[in-house]
Amino acid sequence: MTTPTHPIHLTDEDVTFFDREGYFIYHHQLFAQEQLKRLQAFFDQMLADLPEGARPESMDTPHFAFPALFEWLLADEVLDFVERFIGSDILLWSSHFLCKPPGVGLAVPWHEDSSYWGDALSEHKVVTVWVGVDDSQPENGCMRVIPGSHSNGFSEYEDVDRSTNVFPTRIKPGEMDESAAVDLAIMAGECHVHHAKMIHGSNPNTSDRRRCGYTMRYMPADVKHNVDEQGGQHAVYLARGENLAGNELGDPTKLFEPGQDRWRGGAGH
Questions:
Q1: Nearest to 79, CA basis, from 164, 4, 8, 24
Q2: Where would I find the H helices in the chain?
Q3: C-alpha angle with apex 120: 115 to 121, nearest 5 degrees?
Q4: Alpha-carbon gap, residue 264 to 269, rounded angstroms
């Protein structure tokens, strides 16, 4: 269902493209301008308060510590958008700010999100909506994908230099055709969406412009979150519809106590 004041510009062909290729670039403003400006200001304050020595690429699950972020995570605009891809019963799985500072922003090695979640989910049907807090272009390290790779199984990984990468492993080069990579270039306020099994990564930011995105991850509510696999360190939230799998649900009005410091570390894109 689309809100009349902020319509979602998606066609059946767009959804078919996502199903086939594993990603879709949405060259429209996902949020109204004032709502986007509030998100940008909220992030700027989080960045200013980042503990000394913490990398701005690794602000994982910030909504655990800052429930105010549910203004955007549970907004009708984003849920209307997500509903076109996964249906009307929606769980919020996670979120992540990944900010690459100008000149020294780290690379994100090729990976599949699903490989990090393992048995924590009954099925890896997660979609990630990546909203541009800043403009995200090839020169400042925009996300890149290997089209169609979401239909593959898990890839094999190898170690990389952690001083130049957001996390310590990458998919082995022989596992994919890097020449097929597509840059997901967007302007601030636009977004792209990708499947959890999509092979993706991004180059370092060597430009003079910051690159920040907010990843908002959702899954159909028939996916079961295996709480024991994550030792109670993660929570899911009912965003829309019914809790079909009977998951234990977090309360979006409260801090998630076990994870309230986890925004200071994690992986990204």
A1: 8
A2: 12-21, 33-48, 62-65, 70-73, 76-86, 114-117
A3: 85
A4: 15
Helices (H), 90-244: 114-117
| The two three-digit tokens of residue 129, written as one number | 């909506």
Average pLDDT over residues 65-91: 97
Which pTM was predicted?
A: 0.92
Domain assignment of residue 263, yes or no:
no
Tens of pLDDT, residue by residue over 160-196, are 998 899 888 999 998 989 999 999 999 999 999 999 9
Q: Are 192 and 184 in contact (CB under 8 A)?
A: yes
Number of domains in the chain: 1
For residue 267, pLDDT beyond 70: no
Bridge partners, 12 (sequence order): none
Give the domain CATH number at 164. Answer: 2.60.120.620
CA–CA dist 45, 34 (Å, integer): 17
Tally helices (H) and strands (E) across the chain: 6, 13
| Pair of tokens at residue 126 | 């997660």
Domain presence at residue 3: no
Q: How many residues does the chain have?
A: 269
- Section 86-96 average pLDDT: 97
Range of the domain at 81: 12-49+57-249
Residue 122 and residue 107: Cα distance in Å, rounded? Answer: 30
2 domain residue, yes or no: no
CA 58 → CA 2, 64, 65, 98, 101, distances in Å? 33, 14, 14, 6, 12
